[in-house]
Amino acid sequence: MDAGNKGSVREECVGDGVFVYTLERGGIRAVFSNWGATLMSLFVPDAAGESGDIVLGFDTLGPYMDGTSPYFGAIVGRVANRIARGTFSVDGERYNLPVNNGPNTLHGGNVGYDKVLWQSAMGSDWEGPSVQFTYQSFDGEQGFPGDVDVSVRYTLVSGSELRTHMEARPLSRSTPISLAQHSYFNLAGHASGKDVLEHRLCLGSSSYTPVNDNQIPTGEVTPVQGTPFDFREEATIGSRIREVPGGYDHNYVLTGSNFASSAALGDEHGGDKAMGTLHLAARLWEPSSKRAMEVFTTAPGVQFYTGNFLNDVIGKGGAVYGIHSGLCLETQGFPNAINEPNFPSVVVRPGETYRHVMVHRFYTLQ
To answer: Which residues are known to be catalytic?
Structure first.
């Protein structure tokens, strides 16, 4: 499907009900699958005009489908991040989930949204080429209450911007919902052989949620000033990572950015007050390629993760992904928010709609 200067979208059937979609516009080419609503590849140009794939992933769908992928590029949920001890209460009723990360539930349990087949449809209109994935999550799935209709739409809204629009509607019971897009980025290129410690990062946050030994927030919201978590001013990721046991895997509180974007977002991202306000969460760039990325979101938090548990994963083209080969900037609700009354609530009730929008903007530095 071709929309002229609005770009194009192509569909390929690669198995029984499994499809791969390629969206192209301007300098961006993005490849998705309806298994896990997954971003498999993302090609953007460097300062020399050479296009390169900047997300970690696999050449085939096998590792995504057999559960060995470490969430590369997937939509995770029903609740992203960790739920302490795999249990919570809603409206006085206790729910128990499978634990799959030490004593905790991570990214929705053993079979989260990253490990299921979504329905899909491609489109191309005035906004640009897009693909929409939908999933009907059932009552009791991984222990969560209620039926939920979930949708994710990826759109190349310009030749430099990818928008991810996530929605979920509980149909029968109140339930926690917090979705995240779990891509691992390396702006030098996924197969560059470089880790991300020389990337330079700025985060629009003056506070974070410290964690205990099981990576569960303590319930405190702590200023970043004077700590290795302070990225309010641009800094090299590796400059202080040794001061953080295990590396960065922490939620930053977003209260509106405190630094400037490269340019204002266009009107194509607005128009629905229910989404909340898009604010600039992070800016990242890499010195050798001079690729830069900005992340905008409507979510209250962003989990900054430096690929601490990557252990020589064999990826696309035989690339080996070792520790710190990629980083994640997962905008989402706060970890374990369902058990922390002082955190923004992630409970969504029948008749309400959960909405979460991200925009990734790409450009190069001179």
So the answer is: 182, 330
pLDDT of residue 273: 28
User: What integer is the mean pLDDT of 112-117?
Assistant: 98
Closest CA to 238 of 277, 190, 281, 287: 287
Taking residue 192's Cβ as centre, other Cβ atoms within 10 Å add up to: 17
Q: Token pair of 29, please?
A: 């080419």
* pLDDT of res. 261: 59
Mean pLDDT over residues 235-262, rounded? 86
- Rounded to whole angstroms, the Cα distance separating 236 from 195 reads 12
CA pair distance 164, 130, nearest whole angstrom = 10
SS3 349: coil
Share of the chain above pLDDT 90, in %: 91
Give this prediction's pTM: 0.95
Q: Say which residues have a Cβ less than 8 Å from residue 282's Cβ, sequence separation at least 6.
A: 201, 202, 203, 204, 294, 295, 302, 304, 329
Distance CA 13, CA 154 (A): 18
